[in-house]
Amino acid sequence: MPGPLICEPGGGGLFLPLFGEAEQHWDTTVRAALYLLGLLWSFLGVAIVADIFMAAIEQVTSKTRPVTMVGKDGTTRTYHMQVWNGTVANLTLMALGSSAPEILLAVIETTTNNFYSGDLGPSTIVGSAAYNLMCILAVCVIVIPDGESRSIEQYGVFLTTATFSVLAYLWLVVILVVLTPSIVTLAEGITTFMLFPILVTIAYLVDVGYFSRKASGSHGFVIGAGGGRLPEQEMTKIVAEIKERFPNEQISKEVLAELVAHEASRRAPKSRMYWRINGTRQMVGGKRVIQSDDRKLDEEVGSSLVLAKNERASDDGGAPQREGKTIITFTAGGKYSVSEGDPFVTVNILRTGNLERVVDVRYKTHDGSAKAGEDYKAAEGTLRFEKGEVQKAVKIGIIDDDEAETDEHFFVKILSADVPGFAWLPGRSAPVVVQISQATVTVYDDDMGGVFLFEQENVRTMDTHREVVMRVLRREGNKGRVSVDYSTSDGMAMDAYDYKAVSGRLHFEDKELVKEIRIPIIPTSAYDDKEEEFYVHLSNPSENAALERTASGKAQSKVTATVVVVNDSDLKKEVDSIVTLMPTMNTDKLAVGTSQWREQFVEAVTVRGEDEQTPPKLGDYIGHALTVPWKLLFALCPPTMLCDGALSFGVALVMIGVVTALIGDLAGLLGCVLGIPDAITAITLVALGTSLPDTFASLASAKAEPTADSSVGNVTGSNSVNVFLGLGLPWSIGAIFWAYTGVTDEWRERYPDLAVLHPNGGFAVPAGDLGFTVAVFTACALIVLGVMTARRKLLRCELGGPRKYKIATGALFVCLWVLYLSMSILKVLSSTKR
């Protein structure tokens, strides 16, 4: 016959009751309160040691190896490739890290219960799966800000894990109810466990595109904490943005690499472990691993920029340039325009270089198609630049007439630029250099509406530029208000992939001569050989204007310019050189692990806020105060950087097992003194307690990540792994034990009904309550997955979307969880009464 219960004299768990039989005579209310508080406190403890365990896993799975590739041009580049495939890591070590307490609870319960099955472990796994699938997904759907949405990117992997998550629980019903009722045979136990590597293999094949031409993509750079893979396109974009942010800084390659390393680490996709670790630390006032804003980018290397700037200042003494030549040139590239109705045009002459000498500049106008005395007033003279002067203006009068005519132009030439008193000798170079010696002034007729044309009909732009600007000119008249339509069309370059299509109408006011069309360019990988074009069109001019005619004088209904988008080859080389430096960059502030025991003990006694700039809040202090003993105990675990995380992995796993055994004792004692069956305790308190860090992790992931993969896909993957590992492993152990030992008298006494049906014995798992619970969960899971599929098809997103739909979805999921709990509890209670 079964022995005394865990809370009765003579009974006990692995560690508890702490005071032996004396404790079992205490007041029931006091014992229940102590066990409940101890259970809640132990949940915090197992979350903290799981944090260390997952940091070790992160260290293991983020391991990289250098790979050298030779480009088409013969150049080589080296980048770091992850040893672990992301999907495989998610479904193996990372799933183990996330679900270690539930899995170990089931294993410990089986091995410490003389290899008889219990209710606590299996029910915790099913209850945790229900909470994850219904409550965590409800939170993720609702938490997305209004007007935003998130979709699953690796949908093939999601479909695989979602299918297996349902089949896993259907399989439990089959083996417990249909094939061998209430008995798990050796073949069934091993099959359940072997479904785990089968799931991993299929998910991997889907991820790499074995079943289709579309793979998740393996190209890119492995970046920082979280082991995320940053696409080459995004890395190129980061380098371009940083150079744009500091346009006037002569940033060294090392400083630029440090800037890029920190920004890339912030942007790289974060693994499931990353969010789980951060969720736990948020609960207990620990050091966060998420950088909350862009301040980090400037702060991390600000001192380096200042140092570089100071070095440059010391090199040139901080004084104005006194040596070298003086440069004289026209501004605006020597191109000026003026309306025929304007009284004058201003032409500016600029001086750069040595400003410490006096310079005389002689200029004179010359006819082009515009004639002096008819279209403009001839001008000539000398401009004197005194010391320190940088610019002088020449004003030239314009002559108006009432005749409609084409646009005309004339020239302004710099005849000489000399230093007064300078004596030229053979071998002695002139101190003044004229850079642009002639300017062109175009006089636009103001008696017509004008003709529209592009300033350039063929434009080349790099794919790293944020936009291309097309200038539309108004020639042969600028009278009155005119307008013209503009639009874009695809060539080899495609809208939404290479550029963003624009269209509209340009309105020119009276005498307005130039308008700009700004077309956003979408950056792509700098490593693709790319030369793709799209087109920009002008059409439908207003009545008093026209489009540019062809060379033969034929009228056109549409004027077209071609924009060719090409690679930024220089940026490609710069990205390559930066990436080779990045592995040496100090990104410890973004790391999830530790390198020294001293660091661990300092963190154990330090309370942290949201980031280094934000002081801790009251909740941080409370969480820290409650968990300091746990933090100090687990600081004894080896640092994650030792042995590439393997040593920390092993020690932390043992510690999780110890705390999980303590949780099992406390949960059993609490249920026993309150008269609550283990199955009910498991699907409520234990399931929620072990899943709480996952709630924080999924919430943060859903809000911060651009896709829903981390928050949605990992729920289904975790649920599958929980069955295949959390039940497959202990059931295989139990089935092997009973297959080896055979039936015993104790077994017959414990399961008298099964002894009749299975005279040879076996690993007994009474199907009554567990089978019913699994069936209810499976039905609810099918509804949840059906709703998520419908959201993808109708709303084009799994998370967020229109407010009314996301609230309705969240409410439905929570109601399903309440239904699951209610039906499961009622079934267990009805079985207990019988």
UniProtKB/TrEMBL annotation:
UniProt feature coiled coil, ranges: none
Gene Ontology CC: one annotated term: plasma membrane
Keywords: Calcium, Calmodulin-binding, Cell membrane, Glycoprotein, Ion transport, Membrane, Metal-binding, Repeat, Signal, Sodium, Sodium transport, Transmembrane, Transmembrane helix, Transport
InterPro entries found in the cross-reference section: CaCA, CalX-like_sf, Calx_beta, Na_Ca_Ex, Na_Ca_Ex_C-exten, NaCa_Exmemb, NCX_ion-bd_dom_sf
Record bears the keyword Transcription regulation: no
Localization: Cell membrane
Region forming the signal peptide: none
The keyword Repeat is assigned to this record: yes
SUPFAM superfamilies according to UniProt: CalX-like (SSF141072)
GO biological process, one term: cell communication
Gene3D superfamilies, sorted: 2.60.40.2030, NCX, central ion-binding region
Family to which the UniProt record says this protein belongs: Belongs to the Ca(2+):cation antiporter (CaCA) (TC 2.A.19) family. SLC8 subfamily.
Protein's recorded name: Calx-beta domain-containing protein
Organism: Diacronema lutheri
